[in-house]
Design goal:
The complex is a heterodimer of chains A (248) and B (250).
Chain A: H1 2-18, H2 24-39, H3 43-64, H4 73-113, H5 116-122, H6 127-165, H7 170-178, H8 184-209, H9 216-247
Chain B: E1 2-11, E2 14-24, E3 29-33, H1 40-48, E4 55-60, E5 63-64, H2 70-78, E6 80-83, H3 95-106, H4 111-124, H5 140-152, E7 158-162, H6 170-187, E8 190-195, H7 198-204, E9 207-212, E10 215-220, H8 222-225, H9 231-237, H10 241-248
Parallel strand pairs in B: 3-8, 3-9, 6-7, 7-8
Antiparallel strand pairs in B: 1-2, 1-4, 4-5, 9-10
Helix pairs in contact in B: 3-4, 3-5, 4-5, 5-6, 6-7
Classes of the chains: A mainly alpha (248), B alpha/beta (250).
């Protein structure tokens, strides 16, 4: 039954976040800061993971498609479909849940235990809105960009793997990447990423915002772990629901 | 002026505050004293609305706080300065940005006016050339002073100080005490200080309320507290044998 308590409290926090925001000029600056910190700050890890992910998918596809009846360009096709439909959005979201999610939860938790959130509330500022809304907006605005970068870098990684291993020629790989391309796959992936970005920021923010102050640093650490676990689960659930809604 | 009427508050089975009524006058330093865990901080949190009392009312200059809507509560809070026990400075901001913050949120000042005001407030608490530093680079006493500067930057009508001397050496503690007293007189604020430091009581206490086991046990001025005929208060004041011997000659 405790799960319903948390869902209710989370929904109330969301209402608080979107109600009575302070000055918009300050919001805009905060949102830009968060876009840089959460979005651009994550590009390094996203590029590294995407590059190797694309390379490995290419090698694995090549190793499993030794049948003479399967055209070699199918490797490029497989890489493209895997990356666009699943890896660039869902796997990147899971990685961001770990990186960004734990960061947000520990930041909020520390602010709560050191009474910085209380200080905002006492000043008459809607602390939930002031602290969390820019993070949500920042990542939601940056997520499509991150996903597109991930798609591109993955495919480049796959292409370099083709050249390095020689399992398929660069021409065949590039042909496969373009073969039967349907842009809805990209749209589907970008739509998913927006929901994931919302979950990656709001769920850890909830865990940090309502951290049990009596637990101190230990509780902040525990909240951070909980945040990553619940966000990851939520990403997987959202992935299933959105896929069923959009692709079937 | 702030008045609390018949405030009660429980956490689960434990009743922390029992039917407390106190009047905090304007232009005076009103002290709430008591042992650790007696309910002092809970009173302050109920007054500023961080916690809801189970029973009773908090009245700011005639306005019942609990009956105000979001806008009304925000208006009251804009006139409130709060010095936290741990200073609660924003880690991600410099000292100057911390002091400017309340002005940035609520005033219509230009940026240069805000900066001037922040520097005035920092000078008022005897801090110069620290505006560009981050809170982590300051000592405990400096953090408290920045906390006071932030609390007064918006010209508050009400000033709350939660254990302003905790963790400070006696000299710095006295500087902070006198700063609070001076600011109260200068800005004519309704000041409420939560403390268990008897030096503070004797130095700045215009009106002292002693809380014992969640109840208002004694009330009076600092000049009458030593002669109060109250066993629990006497035990609290004279917990140190040295002070008892010095004052009572025992």
């Amino acid at each position: 039954m405790k799960i319903f308590y948390h869902i209710g409290k989370y929904l109330l926090l969301l209402r608080k976040i979107f109600r009575n925001p302070p000055r918009y000029s300050i919001y805009w600056k905060q949102t830009l800061k968060e876009m840089i910190s959460l979005g651009l700050g994550s590009l390094g890890i996203i590029c590294i993971v995407s590059f190797f992910m694309g390379a490995v998918i290419t090698i694995q596809s090549g190793a499993n498609m030794q049948d003479a009846w399967i055209p070699l360009y199918a490797i490029g096709y497989t890489v493209r479909q895997s990356v666009i439909l699943e890896f660039a959005s869902t796997v990147m979201a899971l990685i961001l849940a770990g990186k960004v999610g734990s960061n947000i939860a520990s930041e909020m938790g520390t602010m709560r235990t050191t009474e910085q959130i209380d200080a905002l509330e006492i000043m008459g500022i809607n602390a939930a809105s002031f602290l969390i809304l820019p993070k949500i907006l920042g990542l939601v605005l940056m997520m499509p960009f991150i996903v597109i970068v991930s798609m591109f870098v993955s495919m480049v990684g796959g292409w370099l793997a083709c050249i390095a291993t020689g399992i398929v020629s660069g021409y065949e790989y590039l042909y496969g990447l373009q073969y039967g391309f349907d842009s809805f796959g990209v749209t589907y992936s970008l739509i998913k990423s927006l929901f994931f970005a919302f979950a990656i920021t709001s769920i850890p923010a909830y865990h940090g915002f309502y951290v049990d102050v009596k637990g101190g640093a230990l509780e902040v650490g525990a909240a951070s772990t909980r945040a990553v676990v619940f966000t990851s689960i939520m990403i997987l659930i959202l992935n299933y629901v959105i896929t069923q809604l959009l692709l079937i | 002026m702030i008045e609390i009427k018949n405030i009660s508050k429980s956490f689960g089975e434990k009743q922390v505050l029992k039917d407390i009524s106190i009047l905090f006058e304007r232009g005076k330093t009103n002290l709430i004293i008591g042992a650790s865990g007696s309910g002092k901080t809970t009173i302050a949190k109920c007054i500023v609305g961080l916690q809801q009392p189970d029973q009773g009312e908090v009245i700011y200059d005639g306005a019942v706080f609990s009956s105000l809507g979001f806008e009304g509560k925000t208006e009251v809070r804009k006139q409130l300065g709060f010095l936290f026990q741990g200073s609660a400075l924003f880690d991600s901001m410099t000292v100057e940005e911390n002091v400017v913050f309340p002005l940035l949120m609520f005033s219509k000042m230009s940026k240069s006016e805000m900066r001037d005001r922040a520097n005035d407030c920092l000078k008022r608490v005897n801090l110069d050339n620290v505006g560009k530093l981050f809170p982590s680079e300051l000592s405990g006493g400096m953090k408290k002073r920045v906390g006071i500067a932030r609390a007064i930057s918006n010209n508050p009508k009400y000033l709350f100080c939660d254990e302003p001397n905790s963790g400070l050496d006696p000299q710095t503690a006295m500087v902070i005490d006198h700063l609070i007293k001076d600011i109260t007189e200068e800005y004519n604020t309704t000041t409420i200080v939560i403390t268990h430091d008897m030096n503070s009581v004797m130095e700045i206490g215009d009106m002292v309320s002693f809380i014992f086991k969640g109840q208002l046990w004694w009330q009076g001025s600092s000049s009458t507290i030593l002669g109060a005929d109250n066993i629990e208060l006497e035990d609290f004041i004279f917990a140190s044998k040295f002070i008892r011997a010095a004052v009572k000659g025992k």
